[in-house]
Design goal:
The chain is mainly alpha-helical and about 180 residues long. It contains ten helices and two strands. It starts with a helix and ends with a helix.
Length: about 180
């Protein structure tokens, strides 16, 4: 509902809320969060919502709600830091796909820990997709489906953020 409401604001809302490097450095810090909530258009939003529904169906019960919030936050922070540090030429970004990759990594690890049969397939798919994107670029038809440019580094950074959060949660559970 929130994402659809934001999308209904059209270009004006998109311009006000997207991750925009120069605006962030000018003090518009909210864009570090809201950039993940706005989309290129209704088709992009629909793709991200379908991805969210799939992630929910596969992984919702794998972590407690508080843990999921921490995983989501870790993915958002990793994407934003990644953009700011490693992608200085990236002027703007919108979308939830980077965070969804963090969710997929976290869910895959949960399945891996429980030795579920789908863990291998999930891990193989995610690693293959990330490697493809980092070496060859955008997956075929991704930009056309989304309705604009796809920033594949967001996918990698989101997955790394989830991995860092899970490593931290694991370390916190074990006495040193």
């Amino acid at each position: 509902m929130l994402l659809a409401t934001i999308e209904s604001t059209g270009d004006a809302g998109r311009l006000l809320l997207r991750y925009q490097r120069d605006a962030i450095f000018a003090g518009e810090w909210w864009r570090l969060l809201t950039g993940h909530l706005v989309h290129l258009g209704w088709a992009h939003l629909a793709l991200n919502l379908m991805g969210l529904a799939l992630m929910w169906a596969l992984f919702a019960g794998d972590y407690a709600p508080r843990q999921w919030l921490i995983i989501l936050a870790g993915s958002v922070v990793a994407i934003d830091v990644g953009f700011l540090v490693f992608n200085p030429d990236l002027a703007w970004y919108v979308g939830l796909s980077g965070v969804l990759h963090g969710v997929m990594l976290a869910g895959t690890i949960a399945h891996w820990r429980r030795r579920e049969p789908d863990a291998w397939l999930l891990a193989l798919f995610l690693v293959a997709k990330l490697v493809y994107e980092q070496t060859l670029g955008v997956m075929p038809f991704s930009a056309k489906s989304a309705g604009g440019p796809v920033v594949v580094d967001a996918h990698l950074y989101g997955a790394i953020g989830a991995l860092v959060v899970l490593a931290g949660l694991t370390l916190l559970r074990k006495p040193l």
